[in-house]
Amino acid sequence: MSNRFSLSVALLGCAVLAPACRAITLPAQTTIPVIFTHTVDSAKAKAGDVVTAKTMQVVLLPNGEQLPKGTLVTAHVVEARAFKFDETPYASQQASYLSIQIDQILDKGVSSPVATSVRALASAQTVGEALTPQRMDETDSPGMMVLVGGGHYSPVGKRVTAGSEDDIVGYNKKQGVFARLLPGGFGCKGTQTEQSVAIFSPDACGLYGFVSVRLSAKGDGTFRLESTHHTIQLYAGSAALLQVQ
Length: 245
Prior knowledge:
Layout: H1 3-17, E1 31-36, E2 40-41, E3 50-55, E4 59-60, E5 66-67, E6 72-81, E7 96-107, E8 110-113, E9 116-122, H2 124-130, E10 145-146, E11 152-153, E12 159-162, E13 167-173, E14 176-180, E15 194-196, E16 206-208, E17 214-217, E18 222-227, E19 233-234, E20 239-244
Parallel strand pairs: 9-16
Antiparallel strand pairs: 1-3, 1-20, 2-19, 3-6, 4-5, 6-7, 7-8, 7-18, 9-20, 10-11, 12-13, 13-14, 14-15, 17-18
């Protein structure tokens, strides 16, 4: 079953069940940690191709509602181009690029449009490392969870710490990791409200684990990856920290 057909069926089901279905509204600054469910290759992708991701943990909303872990987030390819090496001496290589726009959240059969920016983007390998306890030796059974961007916490502890003095920057709770976001170097601003961050450090900002790749993002939910060295591939298992505008 294609992604497009699956979404159509879900929306039809909501129409049948109305008025039980209703759209959700996400306040500005709300962060949504998501993991991409399939690989998008700029050598194969076409404008309009559906891209899907799922929330990595519960996203708590101010009105007491929440987006469950595994909530579907849909997007589409805006444009894509493969890398082709130009052998002309002193040639300036044309970039391979992949632009993706985040479109909507599908919760309980309800499709809700959402405008976000990508605060941080981590490669599949980096995500795997963040999901795996880092043990010092065989006696260190719990290990430490090292977040993308540098924060860390014990799997059996509550405090998320960072910096040379292990300042408390967030908390590991039953529903996931939550923190007030800290300013970052990619133009990311801090927040006064606690947000869902999952595997991301509160100051995570920009690209992690991508080699020879540039990231640019817009507030309409579009983010663009570029490279003048290789074809852009966003592998399944890569993750993004989205932030509502």
